[in-house]
């Protein structure tokens, strides 16, 4: 590969500082060139750990830097559309945090703006870059657990006491469906290779938290009678698991979404008996960065195109509408 991809970080969110930026440094393909924050002192503190990186006191200054090839956008959800479109207009390739936007319409506008500008766009669902998911798919395809009959997923945590958290701003795209419910929905689509036909979601909205959905439980109906049952929340104990139920066995996936280097193993209970399947210890964030950089530098197809993000947003739109209307929403 040629020169490393030079990244600019738009905003100093925790996910950027503690996960994505270290992953860029660890990656084979990329380097951090700049960080922008509305508080320049914060940007300076962040770049102090990255030799040669520039601190900017505005996002506009970073986008004007001709040295920067790509930007990572970890801003609050309601700002994803604006800064993705502005970055595309500046000729920057974009890795944007999930969910890509607030609606499917917004996500489509973002994808089209990037296509028109000739830049790459990717949604930052790092979990699916971990090789364990390819292992799981191969086991499912082998028939060891029989035909897939159902999927179950959960992702929850509890920080409801932090009333100033951006997740509790309705106008900023807060709520559990956007923050963590998107993961089991994405995983089900990934494993089944198809889109839900209908969804039904029941949610708990909290007046103390700007009426965002603090908990949600849902059913996503896929073709062939297969369904995903899931729950997500910011008002319950920490859980992140996924289960594949087959006619002849199951695959249990602990640490399904926040997978580190030492907790990627999963359990197969199928026709060959019960075993713990070992998976390699890798940094999924770094693999996500490398996949993106190789698409930009080498023309290698992205593993997950922007159209996948648009499709996931269509499902999230339907889930949120179902929770508000207390109704089953069809997608086709």
From TrEMBL:
Residues 134-251 form the GFO/IDH/MocA-like oxidoreductase domain. Gene3D superfamilies: Dihydrodipicolinate Reductase, domain 2, NAD(P)-binding Rossmann-like Domain. The keyword Hydrolase does not apply. InterPro entries: Gfo/Idh/MocA-like_OxRdtase_N, Gfo/Idh/MocA_domain, GFO_IDH_MocA-like_dom, NAD(P)-bd_dom_sf. Keywords: Oxidoreductase. Residues 5-122 form the Gfo/Idh/MocA-like oxidoreductase N-terminal domain. Coiled coil: none annotated. One of its GO terms (molecular function) is oxidoreductase activity. Belongs to the Gfo/Idh/MocA family. This is Putative dehydrogenase.
């Amino acid at each position: 590969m040629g020169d490393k991809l030079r990244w600019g970080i738009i905003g100093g969110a925790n996910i950027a500082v503690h996960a994505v930026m270290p992953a860029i440094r660890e990656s084979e393909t990329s380097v951090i060139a700049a960080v922008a924050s509305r508080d320049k002192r914060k940007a300076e503190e962040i770049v102090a750990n990255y030799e040669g990186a520039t601190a900017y006191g505005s996002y506009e200054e970073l986008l004007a830097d001709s040295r920067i090839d790509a930007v990572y956008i970890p801003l609050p959800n309601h700002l994803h559309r604006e800064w993705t479109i502005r970055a595309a207009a500046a000729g920057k390739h974009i890795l944007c945090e999930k969910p890509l936007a607030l609606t499917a319409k917004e996500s489509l506008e973002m994808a089209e703006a990037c296509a028109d500008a000739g830049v790459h766009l990717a949604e930052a669902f790092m979990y699916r870059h971990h090789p364990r998911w390819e292992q799981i798919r191969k086991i499912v395809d082998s028939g060891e657990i029989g035909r897939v009959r159902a999927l179950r997923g959960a992702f929850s945590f509890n920080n409801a006491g932090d009333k100033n958290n951006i997740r509790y701003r309705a106008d900023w795209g807060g709520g559990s469906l956007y923050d963590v419910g998107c993961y089991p929905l994405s995983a089900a689509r990934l494993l089944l290779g198809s889109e839900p036909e209908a969804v039904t979601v029941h949610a708990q909205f909290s007046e103390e938290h700007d009426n965002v959905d603090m908990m949600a439980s849902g059913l996503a109906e896929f073709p062939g009678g297969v369904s995903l049952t899931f729950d997500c929340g910011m008002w319950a104990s920490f859980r992140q698991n996924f289960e594949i139920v087959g006619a002849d066995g199951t695959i249990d996936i602990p640490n399904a979404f926040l997978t580190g280097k030492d907790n990627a193993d999963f359990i197969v209970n199928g026709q060959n008996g019960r075993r713990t399947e070992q998976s390699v210890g890798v940094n999924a964030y770094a693999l996500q960065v490398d996949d993106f950089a190789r698409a930009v530098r080498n023309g290698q197809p992205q593993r997950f195109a922007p159209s996948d993000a648009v499709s996931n947003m269509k499902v999230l739109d339907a889930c949120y509408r179902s929770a508000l209307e207390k109704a089953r929403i069809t997608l086709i």
